[in-house]
Structures are given as C-alpha cells and as structure tokens.
Amino acid sequence: MTKYVIKRILLALCTCFIVLSIAYLLLCCLRIEPRMDPEPGARYAYYMDYVSNGFLVYSLNEARPDLGTPLDVVTLTATNETYYFYQAPVFHRYVTLLTGVFTRWDWGDSIYIENGIPAMQVLTSRLGTTVSINIISVFFSVPLGIGLGVICALKKDSIFDNIVQVLIMVIIAIPSFVLVSYCVLLAYNTSWLPPYFQGGSTDPARRIASYLVPVFVLAIGSLCGYARFVRAELCEVLQSDYLLLARTKGLTRRQAIMRHAFRNAMVPVLPSVVSEFIAILGGSMILENLYQINGVGRLYMEAFNAKDYSVLMADMAFYTAIGLLASIIVDLSYGFIDPRIRMGAKK
Amino acid sequence: MSVEKTIIDGSGRQVELHESDFKLVQHDKKIYDVKFKNKPTTFFKDALRRFVKSKPALVGFIVVGILFLTSLVVPMCTPDVGVYNVNPDGGGDRTIERGLVPKLFDAGTGFWDGTIKRTGILYDKETEAPVGYKENTYYNLVTYDRVVNNFSSPYANGGSVNFYNLSTSNPGYFYSELINFDFSNEYTITYNLSSEQYSNYVKSGYKLYLHQESNLDLEHSFTLHSFEPANEGNYESLFGTWTGVDDLNNEITIVINEPNEETLEGSGTFGEYEFTYTYDSENPNTINCAIDAYSSLSFTYTYDSENITTSLSVSYTEFDLGTNYYLVGDKDTYETTLTNTINVNEVLSEYNLKTLEADLRFELPASESRNTPNYILISDFNITSNNDEINPTLSAISFKDGNEALIRTGDVSGVWSTNSTANKTGYGVNATYCDFTWDQYEDAYGLTTVTFGPRQLTEYISNGSLVIHFDTTGTNETSDPEVLSARFEVVDPERCPIISVTSQVGNAVLDDLNPANGYTGYQIYAEAYQYRLLGYDEMPRFIFGTNDSSKDYFKLIFTGLRFSLLFALGVSIVNIIIGLVWGSISGYYGGWVDIGMERICDILGGLPTTVLITLVIMYGNQFNWGNSSDVIALMISIFLTGWMGVARQTRTQFYRFKGREYVLASRTLGAKDRRLIFKHILPNSAGTIITGSVLIIPSVMYTEASIAYLGLGLQNQVMFGVILSEANSYYTGDKTFLLIIPTIIMILLLVSFNLFGNGLRDAFNPSLKGGEK
C-alpha cells in the first residue's frame, strides 16, 4: 500500500508539472494586445509592465528581425529613443519561469491587480478569506452531515427519513449559483443579511453576518453529500452478517451499532471528507464572484479580465494542485473502501 | 374397487383411500422440452420494466421530456417579430414593453395576472388618482393620510419649513426674494417657529434681518503726493508717511515701514487698519499688502528725480458683505418665543431709512456637526403692510405652511432660497398616500392619446378603414367631439386603431400644388389602444413577462433551453462514445496501457475546467472565430475534458468486473478481448455508465451557466445558462421574476435529471438498489 501511495503521489507531481507547463506555454503563446493609445508615454509604460513580467522583450533603437515582427514601436519624444517591443520567445520565457519557481519560488509579478507585488504574494493574501470560509463550512457540514446520515440510516424508511431524502435530492440538484442568487435575493429583501461579503468590516456583527451566506452555500451541498453517503454506508453495514453475529453474541443494538457498524461505516467516509474539503476549496469560484468575496476565485476572474498573466498562472497552479490532490485522495479512498480494488493495477 | 387403505382423519371419521383417487400428473410427458410460456426478456427490456415501475424516475423522465418538447415547440409557435424576436438584436418597444410582469390569468384574478402591488404612492386628491399612474390602470385603491418629514410635493399640504445648516464653519441663510420697502408704510411680520404637532423647539441664536445686497467688490484707487520719507531726504523708495485725500474725499494717512533686512517682511498702517507685506527687491516700487479689512491692497511708487515729485498710486478692493438690519435680536432673546410679531418700522427706526431694497433672511449659526445640524421650523410666515396696494406683492412672499413655500419654483414669485451650505425640507407635511394593484399590461397596452399627421392617416384612408369628411364638416381646427366624430369616420375598426378623435390642431389645407396629397397642415389627437398601434390583434399576455430588452421571456427561455439542451445532447453523445472506448481500453488492459492513458487523462483533467475554458476562450478571441466564437470555444473545451467522467467510470467498472469468474470462464472458452469487452463486461457495467452519461447533459448546462456567470464569455448568446446569468442582477423591485423563473426551471430540470438518472441506475442494476434497502 505504501509503495502504491508513493507511486500515486509521484505521478501526481509529474502530472502537475506537465499540466502547468502546458498551461503556461499556452498563456505565453497568446498575443499581448497592442495598446491603441496615441500618447507614447502611456504605451511605453503599458509595454514595460509586460517587459518586467517577461512576456515582452524590447530592443533599443534597432529592430531585431530574429525576434519576428515587433508588436509595437514606441518613440519617446523626451529622450528620442525608439523601443521595439517583441513577444518574448516562448521557451525562453518558460525556462525563466522554471528557474524562478524552482530556485526562488518566484511566479512573476502582478502588473495590474497589485502592481509590482509578486504573484504568489497576491495569491496568498487572498487565500486567507477563501480558506477561512471553507474551514468554517467544513466545521458545520461534517458533523451535521454525518449526524443526519446516521439518524436517517437508523430510522430508515420512516417519514423523517423520506422527507430528508427528498430534500437532500433537491438540494444536491440545485446549482450553487442559484443558491447564492436566492440568498442574495433574501438579503436584499430583508435587512439582516448583508447582500455582499463584508469580511473586512469593522463591525463584528456585520462581519459574522457576512459569513452566513457563503458558509451556508458551501456547507449545505457537502452536508447533503455526507448525509447521503453515510446513510448508504451505514444501511449496508447494518444489513451485513457480522452485525447479525454481533447481535447474536448478545450485544445490544446500541452496542452493536456503536462498536461495529458505525466504525466500519466511517472508514470510507473519512477520506471523502478530506477530498470534499479540497474540492469545495476549488469550487467556490462562482460563490466568490457572486457574493463579491475577495478570495482566490475572484482573483482568478480579476486576473483573467485584466490579463494579468502572472497572477492568472499562480492561480491556475493553485487550482490544479487542489484538483490533483482531491483526485489522489479519492483514488486512494477506493483502497480503503474495498482493498480488492486497486486503481491502476494490472489486469 | 378395492380399498387400499383405511385411515382416520382429524375429526375421527374413517376415510377410505382408493388407488383411482390418485393420478400421476406428468407421467408420460417430456417436461424438459416444454418451452417457457412467458416470453424471454432482454437485459434492456427488463431494465425498462423496472424503470417504469419506479414512480420518481418516471416523473423525472416526464418532466425532462415535457421541458424538452416545450423547448422544441415554443420557439416555432410565434414569428420572430417585435417582442417575439428573441435574437440578440431583437426585442419590442424598448420603453413600453420593457420588464412586463408575468401574466397568465385576467387582471384582477390576484395571481399571475400581470399586476403589481404598489404601496405608499402619493395620491392626488383633486383628480382622485395616484400620482404618475394612468387612468384605468389601478384598482383596489386604499388611501390613507400621513404626516411626513423631509418631504414636499404639489399634492401635499401643511407642515413647516425645516431649515437647517449643514455647514460646521459658516452660517446658513434662508432668504426671500428682494422686497422694495417704502417706509412711509407700516410693515408687520408675523411667523411661527415650530410646528403644531411637533416639538416646541426653537434653535437659539437664529437671526432674522433685512439683508441689503451691495456691490460686493468695490474697487478703489487714488494717488497721494504728500510724502515724508522715513529716512530723511531719501525719496528713492516709498517708505515713510503719506498723507492725502482718498477717492471718497476722506483724509487718509498711510505709513509704510521699512522691511526687515533679512526676512524682507514689513508692516504699516492704512488709515485705521494695519497691514503687512513682503518686500520684493526686484520690483522695489510696488508693494502688495495683506490686510484684513479689504480683499486686496497695493501701492505703486513713482519718483520723478528731475522735478522732484513723488506719487503713490493706491488701489484696494473692498469686499462688502452687505448691510444687515436686524429685526430680532441675535442672542438668546427670542429663543423661547414660538410666535413672533415684529413691527418693522419700529425696529428699524434708529436707521432713519426712507426706502430699502432688501431680502428677508433667516440666519442659523454654524452647526456642531453635520449629523446634528442646527435647524428651525418656520411656518405661518406673513408680511403685511397698511397699504393695500403693495399687499399683493407682500402676500406672495408670505406662506401659510411649509409645503407651500417649498414647492414654489423659480418662475413663481415669492421663492425662498437657501445658500449652498444650508438646506430646506418639509417637516410635518400632510400627504395622502395610497396602496393599489397596478395593471402593468393596461398601462403599457391600454388606451392612450396618439398624434396622427396626414401622412400617418394616409395608410388608413387608402385601405378604406377611415374616411375624412373635410368637404362637408369644414377644415378648421376644433375640439368639438360632435364635429370631430362626423369629420373623422372610422368605417372599419378592425383595420383602423383610432377609437375617437379628441381634437384637431391646425386647419386642413388642400395641397394645391400636389392635389394627390389631399389635405395637409393639420394634426389630430386621437385615442387608440397601444396594442393595436404595436400591431397586436388583442391585448397580449406574456406568461413569463418580458425582460429588460423587451423580449418575451417565455420564448427567450425556451429558445435558450432548446439550444442548451441540443448542445448538451450533442456534446454528451460524442463525449460518451469517446469515454466508453477510452475507459474500456484503459480499464481492460490495465498496466502500462492504463498508466499511460491515465496520465493523458490526468493531464487534461488536471487542468480545472474553468482554466481550460479560459485558455480556449482566450484563443478563440484571438483567432476571431466570429459571433459564436465563445460557443465553439466552449464546445472544444468540453470535448477536451468532458469524456473523462465516462471514461473514468467505465474504467472503474472494468476493474470491478474483469476479474470475475464469468469473464475468466469466457476467456478459457477462447473469447477474444473485443468480445470480452463489448459482450461481457460493458453490458454488466452499463447501469453505472448510463446513469453517469445521463448526468452529463445537466453538467454541460451547468458548465455553460458557470462560464456565463463568471463573465468569461458567451455574452449575447441565446443560451439557457446565459439567460440565467443575466438575470442575477434583479434582486430587488418588480423584476425579481426575471431571476426566479429561470432558476426554478433550472432546478426543475436538474432535479428531474437526477431522478431520471437514479431511476435508470436502479433499473439497470437492481443489485445496487439493495445497497440502500
């Protein structure tokens, strides 16, 4: 098992590297939009931002035919110097990034969102909000979800169970953006919910209140997922022969459930909790945009719209790492559920 | 008959058993050759039977089916004109048909009837109608009176003027127009400084005075010649004492002291005032001074050394704030007096004024903070005189209540104004409000007055639906209904929308030069139904309302849904085929094949969907794939990763089944890989795979909506997700239905798809059902 886990992790690292390389090379190939400003100074400043970021290179006073056709030629009237701006050679740019990342953990600098600040720093400054919302929501969804699942499994086919099952099915089907929209609708039409995120507010009541909507939206989905999963697992265990044996041995129903059924049912649930946590960390992009939360997801959209490629790249790296981590955990959890299944084994 | 055996039964009776009582049933039959009487069933038939039995799944399937069929039918039901043109550049009349609420039943039904509840609308008691609403568009009217603050309106009355000063540094003024006082008459001012219903609060320190405007910047200049230099005999510079007469013929003495040698700052006196200056050695003969009393003061020195004459040109600007004649004492004198009566002549007697052109002015001192400004409440302000001739002008300035004073505008005499730092609103104003149900369709499409010129009327004249009798009833302009109804005769109301003509403006003249034009030079005002003018045969009703670009929301949603569903269906089929083949190969062979294929999956799937779509859309914009570039980009990015779900599921199923005994048995019997994959393993895992595939369709729609929601692209496409995302700004007001309707359809669709998918899973794999039971 250990060997298998190590192999999976190494493979995931390789995948991560290749995925990010492809994403970065694709980003580098994109043409930087030339700026249509009659003022040479403004154009110069605009291109120099990209130069400092490595996406453009320039040559002073003479054209460099080896770099292709220039993106733009700017003549500064003050110094009477002509700058020829070229798209940076893609692989040269790639090597620069790799050296930067592997030696200094340098992902380039932001040029719009926070001018001149390293992209990773921009990302980590936004990470706090996203992670805090997710942790709070996990804090609610895991115990409530497991609890609900256990109750439903124990009271299987009762009215309560049926109602909860229908609710769970409906809630799981509702897309998160609809849920956010309804929450915002509610917030606008009542006064006790803030209609957008005010996590930086000085008023502590307002700050807590603005966590309600995002935590609710994130928690309710995974809560229902856990409840459904736990119910299914526990029901299966309750039907199993070894539980019957435990009862025949003389254990009370409570003892049998607590000592045998519950523990066994939890085995596959726990890895899924971890992977779910990681998954919602990546899935809150729409929530952050709709509820105006200044987190990683919103940063992604800002970077996309502002064409701030370094920040976009750092953010992509974050989401890719999250996605791969979640998939590893899901795959490994199969092994926990049923040791006979080993993903990737030979036929 | 021989008795074989005699037995005693349970009740003690004796029963005789004979051999002939018994018969061998299948004694001579070949039972192993008999065919089953029931028909053999296939895997899919069996699944279908189970699926139909599961009610939730069936309901889900039916709902999905209905939505799908509706989306196919609805876009084709109406022609693409006006409101029914839901293309990005389409839409009806942008002002009239915009944002109509859903209407299914007749107005007045109370539910889904195209009406909006309106509350707190100002009510006009004279016309007995809510202010700003057309006649016949409202019903269930309930009126109620309210006393409101910070309000003034032509439809309200009473109250007092709440005059408050927002400035924390300057006084604020509330002043009337200029009044020409002739003090041969007696003037009396009365006013009330609180409101009857409200507090008896009067702010201390307010002032009331007559303010005489004066020329604000008075320029003065004069020249002095008499000079005593400060240093005996030094006439080279201007320092010393100057005496003479100024421009107002007053004696004046100016002393200019020499400046400090280091700082070059000097001082002096100008008459009774002191000034300071900074000496400019490059320009020694001119001095600009700073002086409190005037806004500027400067000296220019000229010295004629031949004639030994000196002169000093002096110029200064006097800033005159105007002259104030106080009517009430400024300090605490009047603070408790609510009702004031002032005899103006008496108060001003000390000034010996004959005439005065001045405005009446209330002044409030600077407030302590902007949140609690100083204020006074003024009402019943009256200025009268004993001369009846000037009384009308005075009564124009007077006001009985606050509302009346506040609604006066620039073109009415007697306007009261405030300076920029102060403000005035109504306090305790009585207004009537009403609640009612507003019929939005009647408002948009109901009777309205329209102007027709001769050219617009030609259409109706030429098709014979309107006949104009200028020859018999005259051509002159009129608003006599009898004449008009005789003159403009609507023959065919089916084709001519005019109900009645209310007036004709301008005399109709026969065009002599071009008789074919007929009569010209007139206009008629006519009543007509708006819906007729917009080309409808009857009052339209939009069951989902119309959106902000005046498009029928019902048609828009279902046109979008049609595109999205077909798009999702097409994309899903391709994805499922790729996924099945990929997953089967990968799962069946395992080992290095699997690892290799899985890495490709990991790499493509490792890019989060959003990232991938972002990249593809960025390239789409760059290569300029045209109007639908975003749709193509979306399609490509879904093709790149969408099949992975199915592939992964198929692969898992293959891992599950490929080690089973029946596969081994088949292999021992010599089955080839292809047969094992498609005949043995794939059908067994069909349940899970099909369930997964059904859910691809909503997931494609979800992706599409996410892209639109995130603003990555797809704007202006008629796609369901885009409609959803465009609706997400209608959180308040009447148009929340624009948000609620598509989200409900989305939920309905997704829930149904889930039910349908779960039903399919159970149907294909009954053993999985046992996992829950």
Walk me through this protein's architecture.
The complex is a heterodimer of chains A (347) and B (773). With 347 residues, chain A is mostly helical. Chain A contains 12 helices and 3 strands, in the order ααβββαααααααααα. Chain A has 2 domains: 32-106, no CATH class; 121-346, MetI-like (MetI-like fold, Orthogonal Bundle). In chain A, helix 6 (176-189) packs across helix 7 and helix 9 packs antiparallel against helix 12. The mean pLDDT of chain A is 83. By secondary structure, chain B is an alpha+beta fold. The chains are: A mainly alpha (347), B alpha+beta (773).
Secondary-structure map:
The complex is a heterodimer of chains A (347) and B (773).
Chain A: H1 2-29, H2 40-53, E1 56-60, E2 72-76, E3 81-87, H3 90-104, H4 119-154, H5 159-173, H6 176-189, H7 204-239, H8 241-249, H9 253-283, H10 285-290, H11 296-306, H12 309-337
Antiparallel strand pairs in A: 1-3, 2-3
Chain B: E1 5-8, E2 14-17, H1 43-53, H2 55-77, E3 115-124, E4 129-130, E5 138-148, E6 156-157, E7 160-165, E8 172-182, E9 187-192, E10 207-212, E11 217-224, E12 226-229, E13 240-245, E14 251-256, E15 265-270, E16 273-278, E17 286-291, E18 296-304, E19 309-319, E20 323-326, E21 339-343, H3 344-347, E22 355-364, E23 374-385, H4 391-397, H5 402-407, E24 417-418, E25 422-427, E26 429-439, H6 440-445, E27 447-452, H7 454-462, E28 466-468, H8 470-473, H9 481-487, E29 488-490, E30 498-505, E31 509-510, E32 519-520, E33 523-529, H10 530-533, H11 553-589, H12 591-606, H13 609-623, H14 629-641, H15 643-657, H16 661-668, H17 673-684, H18 686-694, H19 696-710, H20 720-726, H21 737-764, H22 766-769
Antiparallel strand pairs in B: 1-2, 3-4, 3-26, 5-26, 6-26, 7-23, 7-25, 8-22, 8-24, 9-21, 9-23, 10-20, 10-22, 11-19, 12-13, 13-14, 14-15, 15-16, 16-17, 17-18, 18-19, 27-33, 28-29, 30-33, 31-32
Helix pairs in contact in B: 1-21, 2-11, 2-21, 11-12, 11-15, 11-19, 11-20, 13-14, 15-17, 15-18, 16-17, 18-21, 19-20
